[in-house]
Amino acid sequence: MSPLGSRVPAARIQAVASAVGELMITLGVVLALFAAYALWWTDLVADHDASRAAARLRGSWSAGPSTAPPPALDGRSGGDAVGFLHVPALGPDYQVLIRPGTGPDVLDGGVAGLYRTPYPSAMPWDAVGNVTLAAHRDGHGARFHDLDRLGPGDPVVIETAADWYVYRVDAVLPETSPEDVGVIAPVPEGSPYHRPGRYITLTTCTPAYTSLYRMAVWGSLTRVVPMDARRTPPQELGRRQG
């Protein structure tokens, strides 16, 4: 074989390798752009849907505070809103609509959802029970993206038509299995609680941008503030939320 003949295959191999390398780089860039676009777009859609749903709920409250407890909610649907979750540690204007259910049809709307299985969530106005909530860590509004910023002593407030329910964070479970349903039990397993009470549990995926594990934040009710005509928030929120 001539020297020229021996160099042709090597050149072809180099060209193919170069083409494959460029293709892989291009594919990586496209996937990265798609991931960024998907997160941005789902956030945009979720924010729009949640804003409309929040406006409808506040519009239904415009007649003034209700003196009766809210009606029973249909646990098979996310169609009935409960109220709003406020967490000052996540920002002065942090407000998340609360709806029943934790399926994609609910959580993808940029809300926090009440668990219906395996332990049905209590409602804030129940005399005893654990109000259990889930929300996305990333995409679809990413309402619990910064949940890991919460720590013991931080206030968590639920706003309903009739009352403000003020909770205090007592403990955080940084990581557990997605199958660890005990964290949302009426008396959550692994929490500081050993008897029935009025609790709240917030859960989301961890680490960020994965669904490998779950984290849980546990709190207990400290007081209930009746709603006045101006919907004046409790001092934990600092100023009027709208």
From TrEMBL:
<dbReference type="InterPro" id="IPR005754">
    <property type="entry name" value="Sortase"/>
</dbReference>
<keyword id="KW-1133">Transmembrane helix</keyword>
<keyword id="KW-0472">Membrane</keyword>
<dbReference type="InterPro" id="IPR023365">
    <property type="entry name" value="Sortase_dom-sf"/>
</dbReference>
<dbReference type="Pfam" id="PF04203">
    <property type="entry name" value="Sortase"/>
</dbReference>
<protein>
    <submittedName>
        <fullName>Class E sortase</fullName>
    </submittedName>
</protein>
<keyword id="KW-0812">Transmembrane</keyword>
<dbReference type="InterPro" id="IPR053465">
    <property type="entry name" value="Sortase_Class_E"/>
</dbReference>
<dbReference type="InterPro" id="IPR042003">
    <property type="entry name" value="Sortase_E"/>
</dbReference>
<keyword id="KW-0378">Hydrolase</keyword>
<feature type="transmembrane region" description="Helical">
    <location>
        <begin position="20"/>
        <end position="41"/>
    </location>
</feature>
